[in-house]
């Protein structure tokens, strides 16, 4: 559990109300990211509720978390089947699933939003979350690319709002970008950093700029690979092999795009292109657009640049 060590007054509030300790975490969105965030939070002995508007997404998340935990448990307790089962069930016991958002955020100390990368949908959700949550709840987004100032536009108290940008697959990736916008209070930022450490991540501080640190570099690189392919300069498998063996990346750019989700890649780039139409690094890709239109969103749909079983 996290202990509250920060005594700094809450910037922007007229009272000296302290933000509460983080015991209860509500994750909204049970997709690739939300399920991983729920898993690492429950693994850190926090009580977790996962919310999704879609019951089948919750069912899929439940199975995904269980199989990911089994992989972790096998590694941690290689020759001890009992200890493996105990680890898996102790973490699963701390995770509840729900389709009722308002009910699920009532007792939350921390809300982490991981729904679709769409500004209007996120904005609407945040206004509803704030209305249903306690006045001390920290409210955060896992957005890949959107400005926090834009997402949180409708929030009445922006001091408790910040960014927690995790990486996919969450249980394996060691980094957490903790993002503050102009109104995030010092107390909120400090608590988000503490939460990151509690869930076993190395934290870096980011400003509210497009793509923060990692995606500002990584996403243009993925689209540059697409342009290289679209020009006919090399095949997809050759580009992937080249970047793995020549640059030491664990996945090539097409494998990685499929892993992230082609819809998410498209939403990121479309948003940036709309905001910065003259920036060549933010040019959308017709090939990517056509795959997303055809429902080929990468590994999660069984096909993207490559086919998956
Ligand atoms: N849960 C638990 N364990 C997992 C796991 C999961 N979801 N995925 C992989 N693992 C474990 C495996 O059990 C395995 O453990 P051992 O080596 O001890 O057996 C280990 O990770 C390696 O897995 P694999 O052998 O299956 O495959 P791999 O060696 O290719 O590793 C990978 C998989 C960790 C995903 C690696 O390929 C990788 O790091 N890829 C790059 C991922 C990346 O760049 N992510 C960032 C994307 S960008 C982003 O997230 C930001 C955004 O906003 C879009
Ligand atoms: P995903 O498509 O796998 O899952 C999104 C989930 O949100 C779906 O289950 C959907 O049913 C649910 N949802 C949509 N609208 C909702 C609403 N109003 N209320 C409740 N649930 C709702 O997406 P993902 O890849 O997990 O991405 C989620 C967020 O995390 C996005 O903002 C994305 O940019 C960001 N992100 C993604 C990655 C990645 O590699 N995929 C990495 C870091 C951050």
UniProtKB/TrEMBL annotation:
**What does it catalyze?**
a (3S)-3-hydroxyacyl-CoA + NAD(+) = a 3-oxoacyl-CoA + NADH + H(+)
Please give the Gene Ontology molecular function terms for this protein. (3S)-3-hydroxyacyl-CoA dehydrogenase (NAD+) activity; NAD+ binding
Q: Which GO terms describe its cellular component?
A: mitochondrial matrix
Enumerate the residues marked as the site Important for catalytic activity. 165
> From which domain of life does this come?
Eukaryota
Domain 3-hydroxyacyl-CoA dehydrogenase NAD binding, first and last residues per copy: 24-209
Question: Which Gene3D superfamilies did the record assign?
Answer: N-(1-d-carboxylethyl)-l-norvaline Dehydrogenase, domain 2 (1.10.1040.10), NAD(P)-binding Rossmann-like Domain (3.40.50.720)
Similarity comment: family membership: Belongs to the 3-hydroxyacyl-CoA dehydrogenase family.
Subunit annotation: Homodimer.
PANTHER family with a match to the protein in the record: HYDROXYACYL-COENZYME A DEHYDROGENASE, MITOCHONDRIAL (PTHR43561:SF3), PTHR43561
- The protein in question is named 3-hydroxyacyl-CoA dehydrogenase
Organism annotation: Caenorhabditis briggsae
